[in-house]
C-alpha cells in the first residue's frame, strides 16, 4: 500500500503510474516478461535487481524508447503503451538516463535550456540554480568539464525545467563519491516534499533505503519482491544476498 502517498494527498486513490504485464524486446531478445509496478503521486519508488534484470528497460519502456513493448503503461490513468516518446513527455514524464546525456559541445546553460517545456509549472533556470548552487558559477563551462556529481545535478535540473511531475531516474548515484551521493539523496527528498513522483533505478541498496517509500525487486525481467520501508528493513540481509551486494 502506498501509505506515504495517501498521507501526502488523501485524495490520491489513483496511481500516477501503473505498469501492468509489461513485456519488452530488443530485436529477438525478450527481456521483460510481465512487469507489474505501480507508483502513487508523491511517492519515491525504486527498482532494484542484479545487472541485466531489466530495471533500465522498465524505465525506458515508460518513456517509450524501447523499440518493442507490449502490455499496459498508464500515466494518471491514460494508456501510453502505443504513444511516441514526445507524446509521453507531454503526459508530464521525464527520463534522466544512466549516462546523464550531457552534451559535450554545449555549455551548462545551453544543456539546461535544451529540453522543451512540456507542461506548465517547470522550474525556471534560476530555480534550478537555487536547488543546485554548484552549477551557478559553471554556467559557461562545457557540460563535460563538470564533475560527475555536477553532471548528475545538471541532468536532474534539466528535466525539472520541463514541467514533468513524474521523474524517471536511472542510477543517479552511480560512480559518485559518498558526499555527493548524500547530496543527491537530499535532492530526491526535497523533490518528494515538493510533490514530485519519482521512479528510480538503483544499485546502491543502502542509498535506496534512505530515499524510497517502496521497492520493487526485479529478476530476469519480472518483479519478484515488493517491499515497503518496514519489510525492506526487516529483510535487509536476505535482500542484499539476492541482489549480490
Ligand atoms: N540496447 C540493447 N540491445 C540489446 N539488448 C539490450 C539492450 N539494452 C539492454 N539489453 C539487455 O536487456 C537485458 C536487460 O537490461 P537492462 O539494462 O534493462 O538491465 P538492468 O537491470 O538495468 O541492468 P544494468 O544495471 O546492468 O543496466 C540485459 O540482458 C541486457 O543485456
Automatic annotation (TrEMBL):
Matches recorded under Pfam families: ABC_tran (PF00005)
UniProt keyword annotations, A-Z: Amino-acid transport, ATP-binding, Nucleotide-binding, Transport
Keyword field contains Transport: yes
Positions of the ABC transporter domain: 17-245
Entry GO MF terms: ATP binding; ATP hydrolysis activity; branched-chain amino acid transmembrane transporter activity
Keyword Transport: yes
Gene3D superfamilies found in the cross-reference section: P-loop containing nucleotide triphosphate hydrolases
InterPro entries named among the record's database cross-references: AAA+_ATPase, ABC_transporter-like_ATP-bd, ABC_transporter-like_CS, BCAA_Transport_ATP-bd_LivF, P-loop_NTPase
Annotated GO biological process: L-amino acid transport
SUPFAM superfamilies, sorted: P-loop containing nucleoside triphosphate hydrolases (SSF52540)
Family: Belongs to the ABC transporter superfamily.
Name of the featured protein: Amino acid/amide ABC transporter ATP-binding protein 2, HAAT family (TC 3.A.1.4.-)
